Model the fold of this input.
Amino acid sequence: MIDALRVNGQAGGTTFDNGVVQVVFNNTAGGQTATISYDLTGSPSITGVAIFVFGGNLGGNLYTVTADQMVIGFGTVNAPLAGNSGSFADISHIDFFV
Done:
């Protein structure tokens, strides 16, 4: 790992986009999720390694990046479940590690 990008949690329907990483925050029946996408082709010496989603009082969920997603990737992520609610905790922040 040589660097990290932190995206703070936002209300559902809000989008963060810095031209490399895009995060769309969603409110679902199961709690808050985020749809992420990234494209590191403009940075040939940088590849993605992992994404950590923090929320609630249980810490966060670590999403590792597969070999075919090290440069361009996308997916839906969430924080851990909030207590015994059965719903995902609101996202506090998302860290992208490269």
In short: Residues 4-80 form one domain.
